[in-house]
Amino acid sequence: MLWSRLNPDYLSVSISRCTDVLDVVQAVLSHPDAVVQACFTIGAVTACVDPLSSYMEHRLVLPKLVEQCSQGIVSTVVFTGLTAEQKNPLLQTVQQLIRSANPNAVFVLAERGAVTR
């Protein structure tokens, strides 16, 4: 967990590796201390997706990929691979799949995690 030094009212939770977003959101919202629980709300949830790591054998999508990015949980999806060429068929397929589960999500292209303009 990282507290913002610029504004102590903001909390950023950064989870590495493949972690269930729903579990993290539920853990944050159900803090055992009622005073702490009343001090915050979740403003946004961002999911990072690497299209190269989204499929298993035989073009099967990894379990929970669509669920992790579903509407009502995730507000932004950051694609961290294959973004150099936006017409890449694999990137487009993964984007279409996630868009079908979450039509309101903002998509950000960030090759190797670097967001550029």
UniProtKB/TrEMBL annotation:
InterPro entries: DAAF9_2, DNAAF9
Ranges of residues in domain DAAF9: 14-117
Any Pfam family hit: DAAF9_2
The name this protein goes by in its record: DAAF9 domain-containing protein
Species, as recorded: Hucho hucho
